[in-house]
Amino acid sequence: MDLLPLLAGLGLFMLGMKQLEEALAVLAGVPFRRFLRDHASTPLRGIVVGTLATAVLQSSSLVSLLVLAFVGAGILQLGGAIGVILGANLGTTATGWLVATLGFKLKLSSLALGLLGVGGIGVALLDKGTRLREAAGFAVGLGLLLFGLDLMKQGVENYAASFDVSPFAHWSIPALTLLGVGVTALIQSSSAAMMIALSALHAGVLGLEAAAAFAIGTGIGTTMTAVLGAVGGSPDKKRVAAAHVGFNLAKAALALALLYPLLGLLGRVPALDDPLLRLVAFHSSFNLIGIAVMFPLVGWAARWLGRRFRSADAQVNSFLHGAGLEVPEAACEAVRKEVRRALCMAMGLNRYALHQHAPEATPWPDPDASDPRAGRRSYAQRYDRLKRLEGELAEYVVALQARELPLETGRELSAQLEAVRLAVISAKSIKDVRQNLVELRLALRGAVDSWLARLEGNAAHFYSALDRIDPAQSQASLIESLSRLRHEMRVRRDAVLTDLYASAGRRELDELELSTLFNVNRELHSSSKALLRGLSAHLLGAETAAVVEAAAA
User: Fold this and answer.
1) To which H or E segment does residue 212 belong?
2) Helix axes 328-354, 446-467, angle to 10 degrees
């Protein structure tokens, strides 16, 4: 067996999966999301979509990979995804019918080179951010995925081509089922494995019962593609893969129990006198029976899996889960600590985007700086963690407020929620201009570089001033420090605006550069303002923060 194509195929397969997911996340506009929501929003509709899609594509592996990509991109919910997986099991039997009746088999891998060619040209020539370019990226991802699968098959091609089942003809039914599992996992295609079973049956090497047992195993072996696609993926992708494996194992157990009676029943159908047709009919029948038996369990399975496969980063909070809800005082203190973490995360995230470095003695240390896993997180992952922390805080506070709490405690909790909301708004403002900052840095023009240095200098001044605000100081000192910093940032913003207008009159910048600088200046100020308001709500409470805000307006 040649391991090099196998290794290359594995790498291209996983790269294609990643590219496919990223392209889908961008391409999935409102109409497309609505289409999927309407056609695969429930397990029943998912079954129909999965059956039809797999019957057309003739690849349950590809459909399962697409489902993983849709789930990873946040387009498809877990219940609908499980439905699609169940339907794919039935849809894949279409290949057997085509081969048994027409001797026809479509190879999707032949599309890979065309997709890579067209998609690669599109990615290279089309403008960034356009839907056509993202569609080209989708084509590249799909081409890589198909080409990777093809290379993996080439790695074991000689073995699969010369695979002789005659030594296994006298194996027991369970052993032949396991053989079907192994062969399908090895060649990454349940359809190809079914061709082995049909060929062996046609040649008289295997009897009908033995071939049927082998066919049962192909359903389990094909789940390896979904498992491989979920490796290193999000918790939802792992849940889909687990559902795929679990349901196919249960379906295989049911098929083994029904093997002899079902084959006997099908043997009474005159149109199924041909053993080949009876084998594919058995294949379709036990998949259909499996769907009927498993369908009532889909909702329960989705809920059960929803509580499993939480990644190490899935729960962002450090104090809420330990505080509980029984003691309101302890719960409120946990909320305050988490809000402080959220504010520090937002500051750290903004510094990261603006290439600012925090001093070691800052009273607002970034939690990610002391986390050994932080080095593996991208900017997008860190931003998502901040948003998840906001969601965890909101859920916790809502549950806490459902209890009878003093009015003052309720106001304090509302102020803390407002603080974390403003922290996320601050991070969002910087996130919105990250690409603008990159474009300005790459302009390589002296005038642009000067303006960029000025804007970055304003940001450095702001975060240096934050480092001097001690949260333990008196309320009067906090009010003075926050108000003074808010005034300084407003003055700096207005000075930049005035000078930008003057620069426009001198035509030192082109229209696009000027517009970009205006936008960056506005968002930097919006981010700073939101962060200061969040700090006020967190440190001063809602009422005092509102008074300070009104006085500064």
Assistant:
1) helix 208-221
2) 160
Whole-number Å distance between alpha carbons of 213 and 351: 60
For the purposes of burial, counting CB atoms within 10 Å of the CB of 277, is it exposed (0-12), middle (13-18) or buried (19 or more)?
middle
**pTM over cut 0.70:** no
Query: pLDDT (tens digit, 9 = 90+) per residue, 444-479?
Result: 788 888 998 999 999 999 999 999 998 888 888 888
* Superfamily of segment(s) 320-552: Phosphate transport system protein phou homolog 2; domain 2 (1.20.58.220)
* CA distance linking residue 195 with residue 92, whole number of Å: 12
- CB 94 within 8 Å of CB 54: yes
Domain ranges of the chain: 3-306, 320-552
What is the full DSSP assignment across 288-355?
HHHHHHHGGGHHHHHHHHHTS---TTT---SSHHHH-SS-HHHHHHHHHHHHHHHHHHHHHHHHHHHT
Q: Which residue, 137, 182, 195, 119, is CA-closest to 156?
A: 182
Dist CA 8 CA 326 (whole Å):
55
| Dihedral angle, C-alpha 351, 355, 359, 363, nearest 10 ° | 0
Radius of gyration of the chain, Cα coordinates, nearest whole angstrom: 30
Residue 155's pLDDT band (boundaries 50, 70, 90)?
low
Residues 110 and 71: beta-carbon distance below 8 Å? no
d(CA 457, CA 521): 12
Average pLDDT value for residue range 133-150: 79
Tell how far CA 435 is from the center of its chain: 22
Give me the percent of the chain exceeding a pLDDT of 90: 18
Three-state secondary structure readout of 180-198: HHHHHHHHCCHHHHHHHHH
Helix axes of 3-27 and 223-230: crossing angle, nearest 10 degrees: 70
